[in-house]
Sequence to fold (1096 residues):
Amino acid sequence: MTNIHSSAAEMAAALSKNETTSVELTKLHLDQISKVDGKVHAFLHVDTEGALAQAAEVDAKRASGEQISPLAGVPLALKDVLTQKGIPTTAGSKILEGWRPPYDSTVVSKLKAAGVVILGKTNMDEFAMGSSTENSAYGTTQNPWDLSRIPGGSGGGSAAALASFQAPLAIGSDTGGSIRQPAALTGTVGVKPTYGGVSRYGVIAYSSSLDQIGPCARTVLDTALLHEVIAGHDERDSTSINAPVPQVVAAAKKLDVKGMKIGVIKELNGAGFQAGVIERFNESLDLLVANGAEIVEVSCPNFEYALAAYYLIAPSEASSNLARFDSMRYGLRVGDDGKRGAEEVMSITREAGFGKEVKRRIILGTYALSSGYYDAFYGSAQKVRTLVKQDFDAAFQMADVLVSPVTPTTAFKIGEKSDDPVAMYLSDIATIPVNMAGIGGMSLPCGLAAEDGLPVGFQIMSPVMQDDRMYRVGATLEAALVSKWGKPILANVPDLGGK
Amino acid sequence: MTLDYAAAVEKYEPTLGLEVHVELNTKSKMFCSCATEFGAQPNTQTCPVCLGLPGALPVVNAKAIESTILIGLALNCSIAPYSRFARKNYFYPDMPKNFQTSQYDEPICVNGYLDVEIETDEGQKTFRVDIERVHMEEDTGKSLHVGGSTGRIHGAEYSLLDYNRAGIPLVEIVTRIVPGTGKYAPQVARAYVTELRDILRSLGVSDVKMEQGSLRCDANVSLAPVGSGKLGTRSETKNVNSLRSVERAVSGEIERQANRLENGERIIQETRHFLEESGATRPGRSKEQAEDYRYFPEPDLVPVTPDAKWIEELRTRIPEKPSLRRKRLQAEWNCPDKEMESLVNAELLDVVEETIKLGAEPTRARTWWLGEISRLANEKEVAPTSLVNAVQVAEVISLIVSGELTDKLARQVVEGVIAGEGSPAQVIEKRGLKVVSDDSALMSAIEAAIAAQPDTAERVRGGNIPAAGALIGAVMKATGGAADAAKVRELLLKHLGQG
Amino acid sequence: MAQISRDDVAHLAKLARVEMTPDELDHMATELDQILGAVKRVQEVATSDIAPTSHPLEMTNIFRADLVKPSLTNEEALSGAPAKAEERFKVPQILGEE
Ligand SMILES: [Mg+2]
Ligand SMILES: [Zn+2]
Fold:
């Protein structure tokens, strides 16, 4: 019998066998949202009517015998960074409060076409700038494992929705780890596909050369199923790759890593990492070896500069991407008293509409791009990017996939790091290099840290457009771990009263 | 003013620099598929991309690239094997993203030149204008300012924005400084813009209508004492919207600067606006500090790398340089300067050439197009070429030459063609417009005329040949213009014993 | 020595069109200085022989055909506008224009 704890694949199977309907499944999840989201605050907007209408449509199609796609009828939570026609879209910012886009992002179009039911929009750090969702203008999301802790960010809403069984599938965006880090901290699975693998059209841009949309779920197979729905070439995105989507579903079903070379990145496996994190990570390596993989150590000496480069590139691009929020065409307008000029109203609106972290990054980016500083900051950061790519190229000469812990620590307390931007930025140390090079990265739960009982994430990285490799390794490791534990990791998450 | 123009250029050496913005006549915009038609209902040729809505992404119009390369080739430029778009960041309400997608240090065409000829005291002289770069960018929206100078109370002023023009492809053509023009700077400026306009028109890449803004010129002028070998501080005059204004703006600016220098005042590097009525310039928006556009490579677009084969294919499409073609045609047609000028101004060169190619005699072809057809077109306020085509005009001319039509009849034929009565042959048929060449028919008309004016006939018999005019006129009238006047004259004089 | 002064921040805030109170300027100057202190280490390895990477993948010549597709309607285009009039976006006066 399917319930909210089932996987998306199980729900899809039940739907195809007519054991349940999409409307029924959607209602179960809407119920769960109303029961637990008061505590978790994963959603910014729940589209009850729209979701039920979409579900009814899928049920009707199925009843008429129409060919429908594998995930048709399964509910999903959408990160509020993607436009959905007529549905409030804020990117976690006050400056977009009340804005209803007149168009669908490509990912939303694909989800709709596949009959995936969109329950609503999930919380995020404002404009995806953050690692905790504490930067959301609409309040922090709580980690279902411990409501006093952050669920990670920027996609904390999507990850928390999965971990609290409010949705079996979710969409995230990953600029420096915003899919993988929340997945790690909530015991869920998140994938950042190869840059250009999923269209960015309709994704409210943070840093265009780093942003990538990806699938989130509770199992590797579910993530793969969603990956194949949203991926593929889009002629409206000039940076979209025009090549067949890697066969990630097939890879996730393979459960075999014999003969594969797994590269452990020396620089991301020691200093600065919580003991319990390293312990779980090493345990997973042993499991991979037991399954026939070979472990090799690789060195990526330039990764230590990646964080610094990221915090120059991303704010620089953001300072330009966020210039359009000026109160002229959409969104918030403050201070228009009929006397002030447009320029002044823009400045007042941006002051009122942007949160602290967003302003900090806009100013930092404006500085890094300004004449006289460009070469020293933005230019140098782009050179580091070249070095990081070279490190990856060399490492992939030695290994089929690379692995590391996803985060240095498990979920920290709400408020613990919010006054120290530099400390907060360190959460992304292991995830950022992946975005710099445009390769694929997955976060997979690999157990609970001994010292705090909180989830630990295992990161798998694969070369450009070889996303299937991380699914293959991830699914194999997941199967080994679950069989060792005797149950999925989320069986340990506290019951928030929503059974 | 203490110095007039002549005195100013005697003391000071002007240096020119010209920046021309050309709107390409592509069907769709530079980065989106919105239409580009002039004069549409406001904000109906807009989409998420050209409105700068959150999430929208640009995709380059291939035709715009092709047109830009054509322009570069026609201006003797090198086509860069690798060029990129860059963001030019500055806030302005008519610019939806608050950055203009333009090109910076990697433009598509570089290092060209254009030779222009002007009339000097020593006869025709050629000046070479070096072209620094030709690059691609996008146009802004249009603002309408309400209130203020039109008499609204203070505080009721606002602006209205229409983004139909936003995102129309623009090509910017930038010259290097043009030294050594001396007192001819205004004429060189005009000749350059004229020649450029003609080239762009011959390439078919733009409507080049200065009055509609599809060709816009900014003139940079600086002065230095004659013989100093120095460069002065330049001003940049915008808003120059006719060829005549280009000339006036440059001479006006030379006078203004010379007088400032005479009075020991500094020239400020600034933007000035040309005032059509007075021919003077006034300061534009003052810049408190140098603009810092924070250019960086546009991350949403990929580089443009035209291959040699494509460039060579485009090179074959470059037509003869318009000024050379004009000279050649003028010589071939043995056409007076004034008439040639009229043909060029009326944009009739192409159709006259075509008419002549179809066998029409050059003088008649020119006369018909510049005369009767232009007159009719003027009445209807349309272009002459929209009324009739070269084939029809060539046919009419051949009928005149063969004696089947008189000029007067021919005018009726043309009228019929314009009225949609069919080809010249069909009009002749329908209206019965045949030259009366039958001698006996003419003779009876001649005899009737003599009978009606016996005194006049007597004078002719007496040797007063010019008196025959009145009789010939009467015959022509009686035959409704369908007679050949020369033939009538011949028969009449013979009949009255003067043949 | 501080990388960035309060005046620098004021200038940047102006360029970026973000109004800031004197307090915020002080705060931001301190924070930016701290961040710049951390990120400037990119300069340690960014030698002149390294080509910059601005885009993760090497792609070139992505174009679309010059075809017109339907635009938004006037209502859709203006649907998010804070103010509108005469089928246009209504904005505060643009200073310095005639
Ligand atoms: Mg320009
Ligand atoms: Zn458009």
Q: What stands out?
A: The domain at 6-45 of chain C is CATH 1.10.20 (Histone, subunit A). Residues B 102, 137, 172 surround magnesium ion (ligand 1) (CB under 6 Å). The helical segments of chain C are 6-15, 22-39, 74-77. The mean pLDDT of chain C is 93.
